[in-house]
Write a structure and sequence with these properties.
The protein has two domains: about 55 residues; about 130 residues, no CATH class. It is mainly alpha-helical. It is elongated, with a radius of gyration of 25 Å.
Length: about 190
Protein backbone atom coordinates (compact mmCIF):
# COMPACT_ATOMS: atom_id res chain seq x y z
CA UNK A 1 0.00 0.00 0.00
CA UNK A 2 1.31 3.43 -0.86
CA UNK A 3 2.33 5.83 1.87
CA UNK A 4 -0.48 8.23 0.84
CA UNK A 5 -3.15 5.57 1.38
CA UNK A 6 -1.51 4.56 4.65
CA UNK A 7 -1.69 8.14 5.87
CA UNK A 8 -5.36 8.34 4.86
CA UNK A 9 -6.09 5.07 6.68
CA UNK A 10 -4.28 6.23 9.84
CA UNK A 11 -6.10 9.59 9.70
CA UNK A 12 -9.44 7.79 9.32
CA UNK A 13 -8.65 5.70 12.40
CA UNK A 14 -7.68 8.80 14.38
CA UNK A 15 -11.02 10.35 13.45
CA UNK A 16 -12.77 7.09 14.43
CA UNK A 17 -11.13 7.22 17.87
CA UNK A 18 -12.11 10.87 18.26
CA UNK A 19 -15.72 10.10 17.24
CA UNK A 20 -16.16 7.05 19.41
CA UNK A 21 -18.62 7.31 22.28
CA UNK A 22 -17.16 6.59 25.73
CA UNK A 23 -18.51 3.03 25.83
CA UNK A 24 -16.74 2.24 22.51
CA UNK A 25 -13.44 4.02 23.16
CA UNK A 26 -11.53 0.86 24.13
CA UNK A 27 -12.75 -0.91 21.00
CA UNK A 28 -11.71 1.93 18.71
CA UNK A 29 -8.25 2.13 20.31
CA UNK A 30 -7.89 -1.64 19.85
CA UNK A 31 -8.80 -1.26 16.17
CA UNK A 32 -6.22 1.49 15.86
CA UNK A 33 -3.56 -0.85 17.22
CA UNK A 34 -4.72 -3.57 14.81
CA UNK A 35 -3.99 -1.27 11.88
CA UNK A 36 -0.45 -2.52 11.28
CA UNK A 37 -1.75 -6.10 11.05
CA UNK A 38 -3.98 -5.20 8.11
CA UNK A 39 -2.32 -6.32 4.91
CA UNK A 40 -1.43 -3.81 2.18
CA UNK A 41 -4.64 -3.09 0.28
CA UNK A 42 -6.93 -4.00 3.18
CA UNK A 43 -5.77 -1.21 5.51
CA UNK A 44 -7.86 1.55 3.96
CA UNK A 45 -11.14 -0.46 3.83
CA UNK A 46 -10.45 -1.60 7.41
CA UNK A 47 -9.93 1.99 8.57
CA UNK A 48 -13.00 3.26 6.70
CA UNK A 49 -15.07 0.43 8.19
CA UNK A 50 -13.93 1.42 11.68
CA UNK A 51 -14.76 5.05 10.92
CA UNK A 52 -18.21 4.09 9.66
CA UNK A 53 -18.87 1.96 12.76
CA UNK A 54 -17.91 4.82 15.09
CA UNK A 55 -19.95 7.38 13.15
CA UNK A 56 -22.94 5.05 13.28
CA UNK A 57 -22.42 4.38 17.00
CA UNK A 58 -22.18 8.10 17.72
CA UNK A 59 -25.19 9.02 15.56
CA UNK A 60 -27.47 6.43 17.16
CA UNK A 61 -26.90 7.46 20.77
CA UNK A 62 -29.93 8.80 22.58
CA UNK A 63 -28.35 12.21 23.04
CA UNK A 64 -27.56 12.48 19.33
CA UNK A 65 -31.12 11.58 18.36
CA UNK A 66 -32.64 14.18 20.72
CA UNK A 67 -30.14 16.83 19.59
CA UNK A 68 -30.85 16.03 15.94
CA UNK A 69 -34.57 16.54 16.49
CA UNK A 70 -33.89 19.77 18.37
CA UNK A 71 -31.71 21.24 15.64
CA UNK A 72 -34.09 20.03 12.94
CA UNK A 73 -36.85 22.02 14.62
CA UNK A 74 -34.57 25.06 14.91
CA UNK A 75 -33.56 24.94 11.23
CA UNK A 76 -37.16 24.42 10.11
CA UNK A 77 -38.26 27.38 12.24
CA UNK A 78 -35.57 29.57 10.69
CA UNK A 79 -36.67 28.49 7.21
CA UNK A 80 -40.30 29.19 8.14
CA UNK A 81 -39.29 32.64 9.38
CA UNK A 82 -37.49 33.36 6.10
CA UNK A 83 -40.59 32.29 4.17
CA UNK A 84 -42.65 34.71 6.26
CA UNK A 85 -40.25 37.53 5.42
CA UNK A 86 -40.56 36.66 1.74
CA UNK A 87 -44.36 36.61 2.05
CA UNK A 88 -44.34 39.96 3.84
CA UNK A 89 -42.24 41.47 1.07
CA UNK A 90 -44.61 40.24 -1.60
CA UNK A 91 -47.65 41.45 0.32
CA UNK A 92 -46.16 44.90 0.82
CA UNK A 93 -45.59 45.30 -2.94
CA UNK A 94 -49.31 44.89 -3.62
CA UNK A 95 -50.32 47.33 -0.89
CA UNK A 96 -51.52 44.82 1.70
CA UNK A 97 -50.08 46.67 4.68
CA UNK A 98 -51.83 44.88 7.56
CA UNK A 99 -51.11 41.33 6.32
CA UNK A 100 -47.55 42.37 5.52
CA UNK A 101 -47.00 43.67 9.05
CA UNK A 102 -48.56 40.50 10.45
CA UNK A 103 -46.15 38.40 8.39
CA UNK A 104 -43.15 40.45 9.57
CA UNK A 105 -44.31 40.10 13.18
CA UNK A 106 -44.80 36.35 12.73
CA UNK A 107 -41.32 36.03 11.19
CA UNK A 108 -39.81 37.76 14.21
CA UNK A 109 -41.83 35.62 16.64
CA UNK A 110 -40.81 32.42 14.86
CA UNK A 111 -37.15 33.48 14.89
CA UNK A 112 -37.37 34.15 18.65
CA UNK A 113 -38.96 30.71 19.09
CA UNK A 114 -36.12 29.14 17.10
CA UNK A 115 -33.60 30.94 19.30
CA UNK A 116 -35.23 29.74 22.53
CA UNK A 117 -35.48 26.20 21.18
CA UNK A 118 -31.77 26.29 20.31
CA UNK A 119 -30.83 27.66 23.74
CA UNK A 120 -33.32 25.91 26.02
CA UNK A 121 -34.14 22.71 24.15
CA UNK A 122 -37.26 20.88 23.07
CA UNK A 123 -39.25 21.82 26.18
CA UNK A 124 -39.04 25.48 25.11
CA UNK A 125 -40.50 24.55 21.73
CA UNK A 126 -43.49 22.93 23.43
CA UNK A 127 -44.01 25.79 25.89
CA UNK A 128 -43.88 28.38 23.10
CA UNK A 129 -46.08 26.41 20.69
CA UNK A 130 -49.00 25.71 23.02
CA UNK A 131 -50.27 29.32 23.38
CA UNK A 132 -49.80 30.01 19.66
CA UNK A 133 -51.74 26.88 18.74
CA UNK A 134 -54.59 27.88 21.06
CA UNK A 135 -54.67 31.45 19.73
CA UNK A 136 -54.44 30.29 16.11
CA UNK A 137 -57.25 27.79 16.67
CA UNK A 138 -59.50 30.54 17.99
CA UNK A 139 -58.58 32.78 15.05
CA UNK A 140 -59.26 30.00 12.53
CA UNK A 141 -62.64 29.25 14.09
CA UNK A 142 -63.85 32.77 14.76
CA UNK A 143 -62.26 35.03 12.14
CA UNK A 144 -65.68 35.88 10.70
CA UNK A 145 -66.90 37.15 14.08
CA UNK A 146 -63.66 39.03 14.89
CA UNK A 147 -63.29 41.06 11.73
CA UNK A 148 -65.76 42.69 9.42
CA UNK A 149 -66.04 41.01 6.01
CA UNK A 150 -62.91 41.86 4.08
CA UNK A 151 -60.67 40.51 1.37
CA UNK A 152 -58.03 39.17 3.74
CA UNK A 153 -60.29 37.17 6.09
CA UNK A 154 -59.63 33.95 4.16
CA UNK A 155 -55.91 34.74 4.18
CA UNK A 156 -55.92 35.11 7.98
CA UNK A 157 -57.85 31.85 8.38
CA UNK A 158 -55.41 30.02 6.10
CA UNK A 159 -52.42 31.37 8.03
CA UNK A 160 -54.04 30.39 11.35
CA UNK A 161 -54.69 26.86 10.10
CA UNK A 162 -51.11 26.69 8.83
CA UNK A 163 -49.82 27.64 12.29
CA UNK A 164 -51.98 25.02 13.99
CA UNK A 165 -50.78 22.25 11.66
CA UNK A 166 -47.08 23.19 11.63
CA UNK A 167 -46.83 23.87 15.36
CA UNK A 168 -48.76 20.69 16.19
CA UNK A 169 -46.25 18.75 14.11
CA UNK A 170 -43.38 20.51 15.89
CA UNK A 171 -44.93 19.64 19.25
CA UNK A 172 -45.35 16.04 18.18
CA UNK A 173 -41.64 15.91 17.35
CA UNK A 174 -40.59 17.79 20.51
CA UNK A 175 -42.62 15.50 22.76
CA UNK A 176 -42.45 12.27 20.79
CA UNK A 177 -38.73 11.95 20.10
CA UNK A 178 -37.58 12.18 23.75
CA UNK A 179 -40.41 9.84 24.79
CA UNK A 180 -39.39 7.36 22.09
CA UNK A 181 -35.74 7.59 23.19
CA UNK A 182 -36.73 6.89 26.81
CA UNK A 183 -38.82 3.91 25.70
CA UNK A 184 -35.91 2.55 23.65
CA UNK A 185 -33.61 3.00 26.63
CA UNK A 186 -36.04 1.09 28.89
CA UNK A 187 -36.46 -1.72 26.37
CA UNK A 188 -32.69 -2.25 26.07
CA UNK A 189 -32.12 -2.43 29.83
Amino acid sequence: MTSGLTRIARAALRVAVALSPPERLEWSKAMQSEMHHASGGNALPFALGCLWAMAKARATTQTAIVNASRWTLVLCAVAWSVLHIRLAGRLSTVGATAPSMLAYFAAAAIAVGAFFTAVRGLRAAVLLAIPVIILSSFVAIGIDQMLPPQAFARFYRAIAIEYVVILSTAMLIAIGVPAWVKQQKRSTI
